[in-house]
């Protein structure tokens, strides 16, 4: 049975943009597993699978229903051990947790300030209202205040990515010679930025830009097909 991955989109279902969902998409391709992606609007998510989750990604694999991108990756690693490993062992799981923390607590904050208005423009009116209210509550600032910081956030992005740039001076991927789930965590963040704003806002010769292009080329360029 083909798996179903519920992900996030705006009005255009052909442009799923959630960073967390892109982690799961890349993990499934890494494992070589067949799946159907079903992008959903923000306000539709709680209506699927009997209200199993208020957020995506949400993966249905037979009788199993798994939410949260990291939990999905751990599930795939355990359920499909014969497929290429997402972590390369327990140490890789621990390292990926560090990458997740860096991505969500440093990189995501900058990208949110860059992409806020663009995301809002991608949504239907009901989802725009939800997005505005939920982000104001989560970040403790008005929508307009956050949007006003866009140019400063673009300027701040290269410095926020310096830890990744440092790593890429020694190896082509976060996972080493080949990508692992740690790559997909940070790739998901920049794919989110690319799809919502049309750019990753970095020079093409930046090591992070070159790494991102390598990730876009993975699995027959499946991620590059969404723009």
UniProtKB/TrEMBL annotation:
<feature type="domain" description="GST N-terminal">
    <location>
        <begin position="8"/>
        <end position="84"/>
    </location>
</feature>
<dbReference type="InterPro" id="IPR036249">
    <property type="entry name" value="Thioredoxin-like_sf"/>
</dbReference>
<dbReference type="InterPro" id="IPR054416">
    <property type="entry name" value="GST_UstS-like_C"/>
</dbReference>
<dbReference type="InterPro" id="IPR004045">
    <property type="entry name" value="Glutathione_S-Trfase_N"/>
</dbReference>
<dbReference type="Pfam" id="PF13417">
    <property type="entry name" value="GST_N_3"/>
</dbReference>
<dbReference type="Pfam" id="PF22041">
    <property type="entry name" value="GST_C_7"/>
</dbReference>
<dbReference type="InterPro" id="IPR036282">
    <property type="entry name" value="Glutathione-S-Trfase_C_sf"/>
</dbReference>
<protein>
    <submittedName>
        <fullName>Glutathione S-transferase</fullName>
    </submittedName>
</protein>
């Amino acid at each position: 049975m083909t798996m179903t991955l519920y992900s996030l989109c705006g009005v255009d279902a052909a442009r799923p943009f959630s960073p967390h969902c892109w982690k799961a998409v890349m993990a499934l391709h890494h494992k070589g597993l067949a799946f159907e992606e079903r992008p959903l609007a923000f306000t539709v998510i709680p209506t699927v699978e009997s209200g199993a989750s208020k957020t995506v990604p949400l993966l249905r694999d037979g009788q199993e229903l798994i939410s949260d991108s990291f939990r999905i990756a751990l599930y795939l690693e355990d359920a499909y051990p014969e497929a290429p490993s997402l972590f390369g062992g327990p140490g890789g799981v621990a390292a990926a947790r560090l990458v997740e923390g860096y991505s969500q607590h440093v990189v995501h904050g900058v990208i949110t300030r860059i992409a806020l208005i663009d995301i809002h423009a991608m949504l239907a009116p009901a989802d725009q209202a939800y997005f505005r209210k939920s982000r104001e509550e989560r970040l403790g600032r008005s929508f307009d205040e956050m949007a006003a910081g866009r140019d400063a956030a673009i300027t701040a992005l290269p410095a926020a990515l310096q830890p990744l740039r440092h790593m890429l001076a020694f190896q082509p991927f976060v996972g080493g010679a080949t990508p692992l789930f740690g790559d997909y965590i940070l790739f998901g963040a920049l794919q989110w930025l690319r799809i919502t704003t049309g750019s990753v806002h970095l020079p093409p010769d930046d090591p992070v830009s070159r790494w991102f292009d390598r990730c876009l080329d993975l699995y027959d360029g499946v991620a590059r097909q969404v723009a």
